[in-house]
């Protein structure tokens, strides 16, 4: 199999395309949340009419520390994390809990006590080491 064919098969695999779509949508969503935080949330948190939280900074020896910008990014991160948790993680956990069966399925195989190979439950002799096994 050629490297080009292997690469094409890898790229066209469903999970790779799904991941790429998820990353693009996540980046777009993060940009929206960052804009929401910067343009709406932090001006409300700051002193209305005087200073926006995003503009808060101080300088030491000519170096400017943008405390407000850092707080903007921290608030954006928290908002994205909250949205992901409540709209992705919680619903997926709920769905997985509903799909979970209470009674485990009966095992169809067991281990041979002599060679530890997997054999059918009803077998009386191991197909691998030919030892007789009790049911």
Automatic annotation (TrEMBL):
Residues forming coiled coils: none
TM spans (from-to): 12-36, 70-89
InterPro entries reported in the protein's UniProt record: Mechanosensitive_channel_CS, MS_channel, MSC/AndL, MscL_channel
PROSITE patterns given in the database record: MSCL (PS01327)
Keyword annotations from UniProtKB, A to Z: Cell membrane, Ion channel, Ion transport, Membrane, Transmembrane, Transmembrane helix, Transport
GO cellular component, one term: plasma membrane
Superkingdom in the source lineage: Bacteria
Lipid bilayer topology: Multi-pass membrane protein
GO function term, MF aspect, one: mechanosensitive monoatomic ion channel activity
Protein's cellular compartments: Cell membrane
Similarity annotation: Belongs to the MscL family.
Subunit note: Homopentamer.
Annotated function: Channel that opens in response to stretch forces in the membrane lipid bilayer. May participate in the regulation of osmotic pressure changes within the cell.
Protein name per the record: Large-conductance mechanosensitive channel
Species in which this protein is naturally found: Capsulimonas corticalis
């Amino acid at each position: 199999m050629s490297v080009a064919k292997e690469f094409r098969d890898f790229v066209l695999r469903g999970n790779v395309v799904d991941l790429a779509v998820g990353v693009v949508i996540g980046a777009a969503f993060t940009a929206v949340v960052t804009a929401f935080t910067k343009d709406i949330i932090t001006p409300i948190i700051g002193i209305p009419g005087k200073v926006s939280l995003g503009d808060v900074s101080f300088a030491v020896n000519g170096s400017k520390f943008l405390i407000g910008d850092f707080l903007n990014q921290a608030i954006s991160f928290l908002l994205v994390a909250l949205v992901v948790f409540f709209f992705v993680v919680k619903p997926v956990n709920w769905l997985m809990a509903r799909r979970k069966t209470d009674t485990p399925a009966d095992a169809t195989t067991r281990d041979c006590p002599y060679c530890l190979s997997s054999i059918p439950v009803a077998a009386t002799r191991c197909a691998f080491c030919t030892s007789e096994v009790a049911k």
